[in-house]
Amino acid sequence: MERRLSAASRRSAPSPIQQLSHLAQRVGAVNLAEGFPDFAAPPHVKAAAAAAIAADHNQYRHVQGICDILAETAKRDHGLDVDPLTDFVICCGQSEAFAAAIFAIIDPGDEVLLFDPAYETYETCIELARGVPVYVPLDPPSWTLKEDEFLKSFTSRTKAVVLNSPHNSTGKVFSKEKLLIIAQACQKMDCFAITDEVYEYITYDENKHISLASLPGMQERTIITSSLSKTYSVTGWRIGWACAPASIASAIRNIHVKLTDSAPAPFQEAALIALTSKPDFYSSLKKVSLHANL
Predict the structure, then answer these.
(1) Quick one: how many helices (H) and strands (E) in the chain?
(2) How wide is the angle at C-alpha 230 spanned by C-alphas 81 and 123, nearest 5°?
(3) Which residues neighbour 252 within 8 Å (Cβ) at sequence distance 6 or greater?
(4) How far apart (Å, rounded) are the C-alpha atoms in residues 221 and 251?
(5) Distance (Å, rounded) from C-alpha 204 to C-alpha 166?
(6) 111 has which bridge partners?
(7) Which of 119, 265, 269, 276 keeps 20 to 30 A from 67, CA to CA?
(8) Assigned domain for 19 exists
(9) In a domain? residue 237
(10) Ordered alpha helix ranges (H), 55-156
(11) 243, 67 in Cβ contact below 8 A?
C-alpha cells in the first residue's frame, strides 16, 4: 500500500535533527542536534504544572489568562495594542502555531521567502500547503542580509516572508535597520510576515530583540509565533501561540482546532505562572544560557 501514500508524505523526508536526537538519547551521547535547554525548568513553573495535574485539569481547555498576559507583554515590550480575546491562538508549541499560520495563508503555488540557514520545519510546512519555499542566503560569518538579493527574491507570487529573530541556528539578532528593509518590502509587495520569536529573551551584548510587528505599517500583516519552550526550559510541554489581527487569528484558530483541538491543559495552567515570572528570572536566564553554551 506504500504506493497509495500521498504525494506530500512522499516528499517529506525524516527529520535529521530528530534522528540524531533519538540516536543521542539511545546511546547517552551529548546531543548537539536539537535546540533544547540542558538545564532544569524553574521550580515555580514545575510546581504550577504539578498542582494543575493534581487539580484534575485534564480535559480540553483554553486558558484565556495566557492571552491576557501576552497582550500586556506585547504592549509593554513592543508597544503593540492587541486584543487578548481575538488576536491570540494557543497552540501545541510554536511549531503548530507556525504550521497553522502557513495553512491559513498559503495557497498552491504561493511563494514564501526563507532566510538561509532556516529551521527545517518551515520548508516542510510550506510544502505541505503546496507552497514554494524560496531561500534568501544570509552572508556568513555575521549572517548579513544583503538587501539587493533579498529584494530580487520577490515575485508576483510571493505571499509571505518568514523571519526568525533571534535566529536559529546562528544566533543572529536582526537590527532595526535590516528589519526596516524587510518591513518596507513586505508593504510594497503586499505580503504577510510570519515571525518566530521563541528566543526573544535570550540575547547578548548590545543586541536587542525588536518584533517586526512593532514597525510602522507591519502589525496588520504580521503573524507572531512564539512559545514557552526555550525561555522556561520546557520544550516537551508544547505550549505556544500565534498573535495576529483578529481576522487572521480566527483563520489560524479554526485550523488549530481541527488539528489538535487544544494545547495540554495542565501546562497551560503552568504557563500562567511562567509568563508572570519576575524580571530577575529573565536576566538570570541569559547568564545560565551563556554558561551552558561555553
Answers:
(1) 11, 8
(2) 85
(3) 89, 97, 100, 101, 104, 223, 242, 244
(4) 14
(5) 10
(6) 132, 158
(7) 119
(8) no
(9) yes
(10) 64-78, 93-105, 120-128, 147-152
(11) no
Considering the domain boundaries, does residue 23 fall inside one?
no
Distance (Å, whole) CA 286 – CA 294: 12
In a 3-state reduction of DSSP, which class is residue 161?
strand
Cα distances (Å, whole numbers) of residue 68 to 84, 168, 176, 288:
5, 28, 27, 28
Q: Is the pTM of this model over 0.90?
A: yes
Q: What stretches of 106-228 show up as alpha helix (H) in DSSP?
A: 120-128, 147-152, 176-188
Q: Identify residue 180 by its one-letter amino acid code.
A: L
Domain count within the chain: 1
What are the grid coordinates assigned to 142, written together?
555575521
Q: Which residues contact 109 (CB under 8 A, 6 or more apart)?
A: 130, 131, 132, 157
The one-digit pLDDT tens for each residue of the chain (294 residues) are 888 888 888 887 777 777 888 888 898 888 777 767 778 999 999 999 999 999 999 999 999 999 999 999 999 999 999 999 999 999 999 999 999 999 999 999 999 999 999 999 999 999 999 999 999 999 999 999 999 999 999 999 999 999 999 999 899 999 999 999 999 999 999 999 999 999 999 998 889 999 999 999 999 999 999 999 999 999 999 999 999 999 999 999 999 999 999 999 999 999 999 999 988 898 888 777 665 555
DSSP output for 31-46: --SS---SSPPPHHHH
Residue 92, pLDDT score: 98
User: What's the Cα-to-Cα distance from 181 to each of 155, 174, 216, rounded to whole Å?
Assistant: 16, 11, 12
The domain that holds 256 is classified in CATH as: 3.40.640.10
Query: Is the residue at 290 inside a domain?
Result: no
Of how many residues is the chain composed? Answer: 294
